[in-house]
Design a protein that fits this description.
- The complex is a heterodimer of chains A (284) and B (205).
- Helix content of chain A is 6%, strand content 58%.
- Chain A has one helix spanning 4-21, and strands at 29-36, 42-57, 61-68, 72-78, 82-89, 99-107, 111-124, 129-134, 136-144, 147-152, 157-169, 175-187, 193-196, 201-205, 211-213, 221-226, 231-235, 241-247, 252-253, 260-270, 275-279.
- The radius of gyration of chain A is 26 Å and the shape is elongated.
- In chain B, helix 5 (130-138) packs antiparallel against helix 6 and helix 6 (142-175) runs antiparallel to helix 7 (180-201).
- Classes of the chains: A mainly beta (284), B mainly alpha (205).
Chain lengths: 284, 205
């Protein structure tokens, strides 16, 4: 007869083996989670490193899927109206930023706050509110309206097909805006700012970065300012806006262009950067 | 003295009398009867065991079995304790930081990011201003310190550019302190500096 104690120990062996064979939190892990929300859910997303793609959809729910890095785990919580999801390090003593490669689908009218540190962020389709932040990597925003705010230190920022209120705060990374029909507030330190195919108004400032614009919203006012960055203004020959150009110690060209306030108003001033205004080749 | 205590005293007296007279020790007849009862019980469960002479149990043998059973229980308890200890040690070893990275299949693990992982290094981090320095000191976790160091490092050249521009504007303002446009340029510079510092602090928010 097998002693009962020996039987107990033998019965424990598979348990011990299972404990050792639990997938170690070192490898990449798939993740797929869904949450019922309201259509205008307020949401916060935090992915320190990796790639985050956010897409709007016409559903009242949030779905997150992708893969978590070896040192990452998913955290979050909330209710139907407020959700917070994020990636955090498994160990606070591990200095490597936790990584993830995830796609998050959110209601189109969601109010979204996103933070990354070093990664690629792509957002599209939102209609209400977006606030995005990263230190390094890249931010790409497409097809948004409402209030959009993007902040970066080193990451290039690209915004296209945007309307409403657009705010970008950059530093070194270049800022590219295409097909923007918004009231803008854009600033960088040394990063360049390019505004193309846009009918925008508002203010663009850099310290040392080059600013390129190709027009202004009809009837709107666009102010450009730099410390020593070049201000390069290209306007359509058929709709030249009113231009006010000045540079205290740089050169100014294009003062002879005569425009109309009905086509908009561009005020460009620099402390020591050159200011250039010209008719764009495409509309000559 | 309560009734309960009185009853206990009576029982103790009966017990003492019985043990002194040896009445609690089984007589030869009682022992034979008990042996028959044990054999009958074994026969009810395992008839062949009761029939086999070599397996017939005396009262002493039964007591020995009982002692062995108690011994096995103690051994089982000790084994269970040992197993639990092994369980705890294995879990601790698994979760201890610094354990060699591995996945369940033993293969190397591909990074999910297209970028290289960011880890702190020994490069001295320039502290652009007091707010950033304070944020660095307040960072609680290693990943947060890495993030702050990255933000501070990336922003450092920008702060230098802002400082250089500020020097130029201050020199111009020293020559013409009432120039409103110069003051506007200077104010814009301060605004950019504040925004940049805020973006670094935002790492921890």
């Amino acid at each position: 007869m097998m002693p009962r104690a020996l039987f107990r120990v033998l019965a424990l062996l598979p348990v011990l083996a299972a404990v050792r064979e639990v997938p170690a939190p070192r490898g990449e892990q798939p993740v797929s989670r869904g949450f019922a929300t309201t259509a205008d859910v307020t949401m916060r997303l935090y992915v320190p490193s990796g790639r985050l793609t956010v897409e709007a959809w016409d559903r009242d729910s949030v779905h997150l899927e992708g893969r978590l890095g070896a040192n990452a785990s998913l955290f979050g919580g909330g209710a139907r109206t407020h959700i917070k999801l994020g990636i955090e390090a498994r160990s606070n003593s591990d200095s490597t930023l936790p990584q993830a490669n995830v796609r998050v689908r959110v209601p189109r009218r969601a109010r979204l706050w996103i933070k990354m540190i070093d990664g690629n962020l792509e957002v599209s389709g939102l209609r209400e509110e977006l606030e995005a932040y990263t230190v390094r990597g890249e931010i790409v925003v497409r097809d948004v309206s409402g209030n959009t705010s993007v902040e970066s230190i080193d990451a290039p920022v690209s915004v296209s097909d945007a309307s409403g209120q657009l705010r970008v705060r950059g530093s070194r990374g270049p800022v590219q805006l295409r097909a923007v029909r918004a009231t803008m507030s854009i600033s960088t330190v040394s990063g360049s700012v390019t505004v193309q195919n846009s009918a925008a108004e508002g203010r663009v400032e850099t310290i040392g970065g080059r600013i390129e614009v190709d027009g202004v919203a009809a009837g709107g006012t666009l102010e450009l300012q730099s410390h020593n960055g070049v201000l390069d203004i290209r306007v359509p020959g058929t709709r030249i806006p009113l231009l006010e150009l000045s540079s205290r110690s740089g050169t100014v060209s294009g003062k002879t262009l005569r425009g109309s306030a009905a086509n908009g108003h561009i005020i460009a001033r620099s402390f020591k950067g050159n200011v250039i205004a010209r008719v764009s080749d495409a509309a000559r | 003295m309560t009734d309960f205590d009185s009853d206990s005293a009576d029982l103790r007296a009966q017990w003492d009398a019985a043990t002194q007279s040896g009445s609690l020790r089984p007589t030869a007849e009682e022992e034979a009867a008990m042996r028959r009862q044990v054999l009958a019980a074994i026969a009810a469960v395992k008839p062949d065991a009761a029939a086999a002479p070599e397996r017939q149990l005396s009262l002493e043998q039964t007591n020995t079995r009982q002692r062995h059973h108690l011994s096995r229980q103690r051994w089982a308890f000790a084994a269970s304790l040992a197993a639990a200890a092994v369980l705890v040690v294995s879990v601790v070893l698994r979760d201890t930081p610094g354990d060699a990275p591995r996945d369940s299949s033993g293969h190397s693990v591909a990074a999910v990011s297209s970028g290289s992982p960011v880890a702190s290094d020994s490069t001295p981090v320039p502290a652009p201003d007091d707010a950033v320095r304070a944020a660095l000191e307040a960072a609680g976790s290693a990943p947060m310190r890495t993030a702050l160091q990255l933000a501070s490092r990336e922003a450092s050249p920008e702060f230098a550019a802002l400082d250089a521009a500020a020097d130029e504007l201050d020199a111009a303002l020293a020559r013409d302190p009432d120039d409103a446009e110069l003051r506007a340029f200077r104010a814009a510079l301060d605004a950019r500096r504040d925004e940049l510092a805020q973006r670094i602090r935002s790492v921890t928010e």
